[in-house]
Design a protein that fits this description.
The chain is α+β, with helices and mostly antiparallel strands and 127 residues long. The protein is built from three helices and seven strands, in the order αββββββααβ. The structure holds zinc ion.
Length: 127
């Protein structure tokens, strides 16, 4: 093979990889997830993903004082039918949801089209 042939073959394979990636994302988004409150089933992509954040308090002179992304299992999803919110960790389909999000090689925020950020309440009172 010449360098030009290898480049052409690489371009073809990269295009194929991109197509497969898109197909996989579509399948993940269509995965049915059942709501524990209303009992209705909705495609994963119809749920809203809430990226929760937790706070690292200031320590010393220049440490801490910043927000962290909570891990996926500690974030919430909101049912599109009844608006019930559930922590993924407490959902009976937790393992499947984590398989589709955290372990799918897609970032969770790429998977969900509807998402928002929430921040834990801070009870911090500097003296
Ligand atoms: Zn529901």
């Amino acid at each position: 093979m010449t360098i030009a042939e290898i480049d052409a073959e690489t371009a073809t394979l990269n295009k194929k990889l991109e197509e497969l990636r898109k197909q996989k994302l579509e399948i993940i988004r269509q995965e049915p997830i059942k709501c524990t409150k209303c009992g209705e089933t909705s495609a994963l992509n119809d749920w809203t993903f809430i990226q929760d954040h937790w706070f690292t308090y200031p320590r010393g002179c220049n440490e801490g004082d910043y927000w962290n992304d909570s891990p996926v299992d500690l974030c919430h999803i909101v049912c599109p039918k009844c608006s019930n919110r559930k922590r993924i960790y407490d959902h009976p389909g937790k393992e499947r949801i984590l398989e589709l999000t955290e372990r799918s090689k897609f970032h969770v925020l790429t998977i969900f089209e509807k998402k928002k950020d929430e921040y834990e309440k801070r009870n911090y009172n500097p003296r």
